[in-house]
C-alpha cells in the first residue's frame, strides 16, 4: 500500500511540475489556462489521495469546491477565449523587439514614399516660397 501511494504521489508531483512549466512557457494564453487547469486537477487528485490514505472524509467538501472552481474556470476561459494572432502571447527578446521596430519604421517610410510624402509637407512642395 505504501509503495502504491508513493508512486501516485510521484506521478502527481511530476504532472504538476510539467503543468507549471507549460504555464510559464506558454506560448499562448490558452496554453497557460489549460496548464493551470491541470494544476487544479492534480491538486484535487492529491487531496483525494491524502483522504484515501488517512481514510478520512473531512476533505470531501474541499474536493467538491476545488472541482467546481476548476470546472467553472475552464468553461469561462473556453467561453471568452479569442483567437490570438500568430506572434501574440509571447515576450520578445531585445533583438526580436528591435527587428520588429525596424520593420515597422521601414514600412512607415515605404508608405510615406508611396503616398508622396518623403518628409516634406505637400503644401511646402507646391509653394516653397510662400508661408501660410
Task: Give a short overview.
Keywords: Cell membrane, Membrane, Transmembrane, Transmembrane helix, Transport. With 132 residues, the protein is mainly alpha-helical.
Radius of gyration: 28 Å
Structural class, please? mainly alpha
Principal-axes geometry comes out as elongated
- The protein's oligomeric status is single chain
Give the DSSP E fraction (strand runs of 2 or more residues): under 5%
Number of strands: 0
Helix run count = 5
Q: What integer is the average pLDDT?
A: 84
Main β-sheet description: none
Question: How many structural units, i.e. domains?
Answer: 2
Distance between the termini: 92 Å
The percent range for helix content is: over 70%
Low-pLDDT segments: none
- Helices and strands, in order, run as HHHHH
Can you tell me about this structure?
The structure is a single chain. The protein is mainly α. It has 2 domains: 2-80, no CATH class; 88-118. Helix content is 73%, strand content 0%. It has 5 helices and no strands. The protein is elongated, with a radius of gyration of 28 Å. The protein starts with a helix and ends in a 6-residue tail after the last helix. This is Putative monovalent cation/H+ antiporter subunit F. InterPro entries: MrpF/PhaF-like.
